C-alpha cells in the first residue's frame, strides 16, 4: 500500500490565502457538470477568508436549456458552442467529464467558442482511459484536442500528472479527490458499534461499465471463501444486469451467481439502484470492497470506502494506488493474476478493520482543494 502524501498545491493555496486578507470577489464558473458530488465538494463548507467566492452555474436542462436542470444534466448543454456564445454570465469554463459522445471536431468547435468569447478553460483529467469505452481511440482523440489547449489542467494523482506530462508535455495541478460521503453520515456510521462477524468481502455488480469484468474476480473470491470458513462473499447486483428482462442482462454472470448462491458460496443481493443512504450503509457493512476493473484511472467509489473505513482491493491498472491506500492485485486489460488477488485479500484480512478517515482531516482537505481551485480561477482571470 502507498499512502497519499500531502499535496503541495493545497499547502501553497492555503498559504497564499493567509497572505491575502482582502475581501474576495465572486467568480462565476460554468462547470460541466455542476450537479455531481465531486463538484459539490469543490466548494468549502464555510467561506474561506481571502479566497474568491465561487458561484457555479446550474446545469441547463437538456430538454429546455433556458431553465436549470433538476437532476438530469446529460447531454451537457454547456458543451454546445452556441450556448457558450449566447451566455455571457460566466467567467471560467471548467470541464470535468460528460464529453463522451462528442467527436474531436465538435470538441474543437466548443473550444473555439470559448476562445472567441475570451473565457479560459480548466480541465480536470479524471480519466486517461474512459471507463465507458471498450475502444480507447475516441477518448484519446478527444484528449488530444482538450489537454494541449486547456488554460489549466487539474488531476487527482501524481501518477496521472506524470502520464499527462509524458503524453502531451503539459503540467497538471495535482489536487486530491475530496470526500464523497457527507460528514453527517460519516459521523453517524463511525459511531455505530461493529459486532463480531465473519470477514465480509463485497463486489458490486452495478450497470456494467466497459471497464468492469466482475465474473473472473468473483470466481476467485468464491474459491477462496470455500477455503476460509470465516469469510463471506457478498455480491450486490442491479436488476438490469442480473434479471432476464434487464436492459443489460448478462446471462453468464447471472447464471454463475445464482448457482453459487444456491450452494452457499456467496451472499447474492439483487436490487434496483441504491439511494445514497442505502449505498453508504452497504459499503460500511463490508470489511473489504473489491474493484473488478480491467482498466481505469481514478475512482470515487474508492474515496467513499475511505470515508467509511472499508478497505479497498484494487487492480494495478490506472492510479488507484496513488489515489489512496489500497491492497493491489495485478490486472490490466485482459491480463489477470489470480494469485495476486488472493494475496491482496489475505493482506486485507490480516490488517483488520481500518478506521475511516477523520471528518476533521477530510474537512481540512476539502478547504485546501476549494482554495486551490478558487485561486487557480483567479490567476487565469488576471
List the topology elements.
Layout: H1 8-19, E1 26-32, H2 37-40, E2 53-56, E3 60-61, E4 64-68, H3 81-86, E5 92-95, H4 104-117, E6 121-125, H5 137-149, E7 152-155, H6 158-168, E8 173-174, H7 183-191, E9 199-205, H8 214-227, E10 231-238, H9 239-242, H10 251-262, E11 267-271, H11 276-285, E12 288-290, H12 300-308, E13 311-315, H13 320-323, E14 327-329, E15 331-332, E16 335-336, H14 338-351, H15 359-381
Parallel strand pairs: 1-2, 1-5, 5-6, 6-7, 7-8, 9-10, 9-12, 10-11, 12-13, 13-14
Antiparallel strand pairs: 3-4, 15-16
Sum this structure up briefly.
The protein is α/β, with parallel strands linked by helices. Helix content is 42%, strand content 18%.
Defining key terms:
382 residues, alpha/beta, Rossmann fold, 2 domains, six-stranded parallel beta sheet, 15 helices, 42% helix, 18% strand, globular, Glycosyltransferase
Explain what the structure shows.
The chain has 382 residues and is α/β, with parallel strands linked by helices. It folds into 2 domains: 8-178 and 361-381, Rossmann fold; 183-351, Rossmann fold (3-Layer(aba) Sandwich). The protein is 42% helix and 18% strand. It contains 15 helices and 16 strands. The strands form 4 sheets. A 6-stranded parallel beta sheet has the order 2-1-5-6-7-8, sandwiched between helices. Strands 11-10-9-12-13-14 form a 6-stranded parallel beta sheet, with helices on both faces. A hairpin with a 2-residue loop joins strand 3 (60-61) and strand 4. Helix 1 (8-19) packs across helix 15 and helix 4 packs parallel to helix 5 (137-149). The longest helix has 23 residues, at 359-381. It is globular and about 65 Å long. The two termini are 41 Å apart. It comes from Leucobacter tardus. This is Glycosyltransferase.
Amino acid at each position: 500500500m502507498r499512502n497519499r502524501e500531502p499535496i503541495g498545491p493545497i499547502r501553497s493555496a492555503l498559504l497564499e490565502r493567509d497572505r491575502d486578507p482582502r475581501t474576495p470577489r465572486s467568480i462565476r464558473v460554468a462547470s460541466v457538470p455542476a450537479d455531481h458530488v465531486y463538484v459539490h465538494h469543490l466548494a468549502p463548507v464555510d467561506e474561506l477568508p481571502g479566497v474568491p467566492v465561487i458561484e457555479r452555474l446550474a446545469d441547463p436542462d437538456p430538454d429546455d436549456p433556458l431553465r436549470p436542470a433538476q437532476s438530469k444534466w446529460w447531454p451537457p448543454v454547456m458543451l454546445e458552442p452556441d450556448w457558450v456564445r449566447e451566455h455571457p454570465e460566466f467567467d471560467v469554463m471548467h470541464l470535468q467529464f460528460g464529453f463522451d459522445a462528442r467527436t474531436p471536431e465538435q470538441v474543437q468547435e466548443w473550444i473555439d467558442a470559448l476562445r472567441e468569447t475570451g473565457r479560459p478553460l480548466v480541465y480536470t483529467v479524471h480519466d486517461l482511459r474512459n471507463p465507458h469505452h471498450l475502444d480507447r481511440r475516441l477518448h484519446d482523440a478527444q484528449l488530444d484536442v482538450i489537454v494541449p489547449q486547456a488554460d489549466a489542467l487539474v488531476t487527482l494523482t501524481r501518477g496521472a500528472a506524470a502520464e499527462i506530462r509524458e503524453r502531451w508535455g503539459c503540467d497538471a495541478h495535482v489536487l486530491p479527490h475530496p470526500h464523497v460521503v457527507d460528514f453527517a453520515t460519516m459521523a453517524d456510521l463511525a459511531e455505530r458499534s461493529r459486532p463480531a462477524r465473519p470477514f465480509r468481502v463485497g463486489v458490486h455488480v452495478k450497470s456494467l461499465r466497459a471497464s468492469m469484468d466482475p465474473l473472473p474476480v468473483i470466481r476467485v473470491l468464491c474459491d477462496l471463501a470455500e477455503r476460509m470458513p470465516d469469510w463471506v462473499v457478498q455480491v450486490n447486483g442491479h436488476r438490469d444486469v442480473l434479471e432476464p428482462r434487464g436492459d443489460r442482462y448478462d446471462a453468464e454472470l447471472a447464471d454463475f451467481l445464482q448457482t453459487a448462491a444456491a450452494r452457499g458460496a456467496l451472499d447474492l443481493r439483487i436490487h434496483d439502484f441504491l439511494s445514497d443512504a442505502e449505498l453508504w450503509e452497504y459499503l460500511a457493512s463490508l470489511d473489504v470492497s473489491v474493484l473488478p476493473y480491467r482498466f481505469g484511472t481514478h475512482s470515487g467509489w474508492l474515496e467513499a470506502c475511505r470515508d467509511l473505513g472499508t478497505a479497498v482491493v484494487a487492480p494495478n491498472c490506472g492510479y488507484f494506488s496513488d489515489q489512496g491506500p489500497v491492497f493491489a492485485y495485478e490486472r490490466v486489460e485482459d491480463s489477470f493474476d489470480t494469485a495476486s488477488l488472493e494475496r491482496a485479500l489475505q493482506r486485507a484480512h490480516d490488517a483488520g478493520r481500518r478506521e475511516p478517515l477523520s471528518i476533521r482531516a477530510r474537512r481540512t482537505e476539502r478547504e485546501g482543494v476549494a482554495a486551490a481551485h478558487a485561486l487557480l480561477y483567479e490567476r487565469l482571470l488576471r
